[in-house]
Design brief:
Distance between the termini: 17 Å
Shape: globular
Number of helices: 13
Number of strands: 0
Helix content: over 70%
Number of domains: 1
Largest sheet: none
């Protein structure tokens, strides 16, 4: 229960300090993916569980049902992740064809590139292949380390989902049965989960808007100008999927679109680049407004939080900033301070 303008007791202060330390350590030790995975499972169980629990008599039956629900959600998310990786590697997704097309475009871009740019481009595909091979040999140890990091990341995500499921089931225990510190820590976790849920729903809206703008440009504006890019549907799908990733997603989709635009002409590629820059600059502020409306924060507040977090923790700070700021503002609002 929120208590406004009441002097915090030592238990609350200890819970705030512990929560702040945990959130900071998560960023320092690169455990944000595990936290996000755990929160995702936690919130999905909480969204679905009321419909399951109300039809079951007895506390024990509800525990078993929620445990099975958590296990099912974790299994489905894991299968979805494996399926997505398999799908992206298959020809069915069009990605293989897209990458082949991008390589072909880059290889043939010398004919349309200006003279000053030719000095920075490889003379032919064979030279490019040899350069890439030499780079791979030089950085073999780094690539091997990257493979280990990906495996560790996958393990962190899986463990995070399991912890999130266990905590969701643990929530069946009435709050009055907790000791004072455990109860206040549970309140902090509930606020963080609420912040995460609001941010996730906002990010899905952002990805949908991003994909819509891109679809209008690729499927409407360019055809009206007599320009028909290949693999338009694949690029729109990629834009939506990677748009779920803050900041980095836009860079990925923009790179793909600009390179494919080179298949028509350098002018079309430049036009695509200018359009994407303008749209995404506008979207940057629109995104802040969408997320801000979910957490009752103004756009400048969220932009400032993202800027500060990025300067300290890099890209991972940008991802964490909306959730951390939403949690912080919820805590301050509950005390009547903002």
């Amino acid at each position: 229960m929120d208590i406004v303008n009441k002097r915090p007791d030592p238990t609350e202060i200890a819970a705030w300090v512990a929560a702040a330390a945990i959130l900071l350590l998560i960023l320092i030790f690169h455990l944000l993916p595990a936290l996000l995975a755990g929160l995702l499972v936690f919130e999905l169980v909480h969204i679905i569980s009321p419909q399951v629990a109300k039809h079951l008599p007895g506390q024990r039956s509800k525990f078993i049902a929620l445990g099975l629900l958590a296990f099912t959600i974790i299994s489905l998310l894991t299968l979805a992740g494996v399926g997505l990786v398999t799908f992206l590697r298959s020809d069915a997704a069009g990605l293989t064809l897209l990458f082949d097309k991008m390589a072909e475009i880059i290889d043939g871009s010398r004919a349309m590139a200006p003279a000053w740019l030719l000095t920075y481009l490889p003379p032919d595909a064979e030279t490019l292949r040899l350069s890439v091979t030499a780079w791979l040999r030089t950085h073999a140890s780094e690539l091997q380390l990257a493979g280990k990091e990906i495996a560790r990341l996958a393990a962190h995500i899986l463990v995070g989902m399991v912890i999130g499921g266990m905590l969701a089931v643990r929530e069946m225990v009435p709050a009055h049965q907790y000791q004072p510190l455990a109860r206040t820590m549970a309140e902090r976790a509930a606020r963080l989960g609420t912040a995460f849920r609001r941010i996730v729903f906002a990010q899905v809206r952002i990805a949908a808007i991003n994909a819509t703008f891109t679809a209008v440009y690729l499927a409407l504006i360019l055809p009206l100008m007599g320009v028909h890019l290949p693999l338009t549907k694949t690029m729109i799908a990629i834009t939506f999927v990677v748009g779920l990733i803050p900041v980095i997603g836009n860079l990925i989709s923009n790179t793909v679109i600009v390179v494919v635009s080179l298949s028509q002409s350098l002018n079309v590629a430049i036009g695509s680049l200018v359009f994407l820059i303008v749209i995404h600059k506008l979207e940057y502020f629109l995104n802040a407004r969408i997320v801000g409306s979910q957490i009752h924060a103004r756009a400048w507040e969220l932009l400032l939080a993202m800027l500060l977090m990025e300067s300290v923790f890099g890209i991972i700070g940008v991802v964490a900033a909306p959730i951390y700021y939403a949690y912080l503002k919820d805590e301050l609002s509950a005390r009547g301070l903002v």
